């Protein structure tokens, strides 16, 4: 109880204020207070204790004592560098690694094949680049009129030409199409469906070209993965 009364009595006292730096010593900076001295002294003693502990550890150390860094480190340019351990792989581990590699490559190849199949189902491969143009042959009974003719209107084997637009019952502007080629009767009943604006047609053509380029890249990637899988399988068999 006495300590409680003592604290209560001190609460009403004036706070202790340390004197400031005298005017004649202003050039020396701030006057160190007791709290500043305590922090500085505590830090000093902590460093001294650490130095004494290190000195004691160095004195107690046995110079002939073995430790693993004697054989696991080497000196390079005056600096000790830890040697990297060499991994020893057994033939069984190599076979397991090859099997995992084959499974990984095969998984990626199957994923690419599914993407290719999905792209091919979305695209029309009628006018794909790198593919020989389709031919539509017309066989006529009359020898004088001509024998065979392509849908593009090019004469084959030098025979007499005939009007393909009339034969297909469509407009001459639509003869070159290999898909969506309506007849004149259909055009009279209904308007031409689809985009007819040249700008939109150009944009759609560019998008189709980009899709075909992507499809080509995926096909090449799938072939490359198949080759890699075959090589890994061959190396695994040789082990």
From TrEMBL:
UniProtKB keywords: Nucleus, rRNA processing
PANTHER family listed in its UniProt record: U3 SMALL NUCLEOLAR RNA-ASSOCIATED PROTEIN 11, U3 SMALL NUCLEOLAR RNA-ASSOCIATED PROTEIN 11-RELATED
Pfam family, one: Utp11
TM annotation in the entry: none
Chain intervals with Basic residues compositional bias: 7-17
Protein family membership: Belongs to the UTP11 family.
InterPro entries the UniProt entry points to: SSU_processome_Utp11 (IPR007144)
Region (Disordered), start-end ranges: 1-32
Compartment(s): Nucleus, Nucleolus
GO CC terms in record: small-subunit processome
Protein name: Probable U3 small nucleolar RNA-associated protein 11
Domain of life: Eukaryota
């Amino acid at each position: 109880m006495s300590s409680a009364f003592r604290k209560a009595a001190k609460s009403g006292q004036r706070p202790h204020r340390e004197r400031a730096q005298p005017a004649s010593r202003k050039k020396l900076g701030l006057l160190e207070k007791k709290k500043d001295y305590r922090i500085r002294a505590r830090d000093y003693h902590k460093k001294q204790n650490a130095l004494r502990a290190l000195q004691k550890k160095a004195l107690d150390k046995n110079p002939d004592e073995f430790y693993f860094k004697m054989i696991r480190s080497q000196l390079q340019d005056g600096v000790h560098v830890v040697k990297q351990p060499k991994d020893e792989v057994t033939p069984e581990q190599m076979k397991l690694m090859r099997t995992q590699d084959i499974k990984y490559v095969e998984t990626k190849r199957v994923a690419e094949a599914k993407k290719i199949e999905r792209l091919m189902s979305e695209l029309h491969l009628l006018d794909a680049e790198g593919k020989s143009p389709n031919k539509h042959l017309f066989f006529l009974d009359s020898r004088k009129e001509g024998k065979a003719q392509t849908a593009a209107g090019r004469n084959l084997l030098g025979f007499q030409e005939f009007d393909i637009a009339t034969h297909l019952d469509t407009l001459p502007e639509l003869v070159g199409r290999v898909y969506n080629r309506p007849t004149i009767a259909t055009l009279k009943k209904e308007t031409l469906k689809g985009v007819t604006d040249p700008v939109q047609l150009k944009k759609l053509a560019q998008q189709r070209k980009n899709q075909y380029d992507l499809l080509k890249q995926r096909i090449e990637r799938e072939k490359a993965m198949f080759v890699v899988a075959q090589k890994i399988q061959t190396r695994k068999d040789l082990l």
